[in-house]
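Everyone, carefully examine this protein record:
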Amino acid sequence: MAQSSQLLADNLAPVLEYAIVSGNSFALEQILDNALEHSDAHWVRVMDVVGEEIGFASAEDQKIDINAPHYQVYESEILQEPLMLEDSAGIEWFQSGWESGAGILRIGSVQVAVQTEALDLKLQNIWWSSIVVGGSTLMFAIVLVQLFLGNILRPMQNLGRRVGSLIRGDYRPEPIKSKGVAAEIVDLQKQLNELAQRLQDLKKNRNETLAISESERNKAEHANRVKSEFLASMRQELSTPLTGVIGMINHIEQEALSPQQEDYLTTAKKSVQDLLTVISNMLDYAHLDSGAKALDAKPFDLRELISNCIASYRHAAEQQELCLESHCLGDWPEQATVIGDGPRVRQVLSGLLDNSLEMTSNGFITVRTVWVSIDEKHILMSCTVRDSSSTTRNANTIYNPHTHSRFGGPGFNLSMVQRLVELMGGHVHIELDMGQGTSFRFEIPFDLPVTEQANA
């Protein structure tokens, strides 16, 4: 509105030039009335070059205070380019002191006034129009988005929900909606249904496999229990008469016998004792194989246990003319007390010594035990039993309990050693040097008692 009012003043200036120069007041009033009628101006005023009012038009009939502050006035100068006439002497005929420069004459000015209230009202109308137009455009855009993108967004949301259902284990197929849906979305729906069917089949197969495995496991456990019960009963049934046989042999030994008879009785007694040992080993192996063997956790002196175990084999080694040596390496404390199953540790070491005594005909057997501190609460015992046997078997044959004709042989003992060490959280290594000897090394971790931890 301000721009149009200023434009009105600029356009009236050249139109009023003729009326002012000719002094035609009637033409001047007509121009002002027409301008006022076709514009938002409240009044229009024309002044001459000296500032005298020569024309005025108002939208109201009553007198108006043109200096009131509620009017916004826009002004433009009325200019005229004069007719230039010169005589032969170069004297201009028309000269005036009101020239604005460049030969243009200022002959007056025109003022266009607009009420500030009208301007404010126009501005409010523009603001409201903008808000209405902007809101309408936004609503129209939202409608277009819902109309044209809804067919894509809704199926995509459904696909996301379906993937979540598959993750949660809901494999039920869902109907495919193809009306108003893109072909790519329809293909995805079909593929998800196929995937759901595939997952359902896999779940069914897994459940069937688990059921079969559970049934087979129950059967195996039952068979192990039956086997253990059978071996336990067989041990009882066999050990009772064999013990009686040993008792009778002891009574016979009290009688006067010839050297040949004494030799026969000694052989029979040793055979019966070996048979009792075989039966005991068979029962222990069965318990280890079924995982029913429980370990004790009690404090014991590790170095004393090893020394006593080796001392019990010195006589047997001397009879076979073997050199049995023992070495304790590492930072052994004065009281080497650890927490573990001492009898099982002794059984492991005894099994390796039995194996070395049976497989070594001459030479030596050396036991090296190392104490390795892990931290304040744990240690590791590393024990190596080396002999000078010239065996040519491989490791798989040595650990196989069925490589010998009878139970209780070296293969059976070593298999029990391996299972016992693994049961105590350790492991066994074997090194075969063909023609030079055999080394068995086992490592077992132990906990330290509270007193040992404090001393450490």
Notes: Residues 183-253 form the longest helix (71 residues).
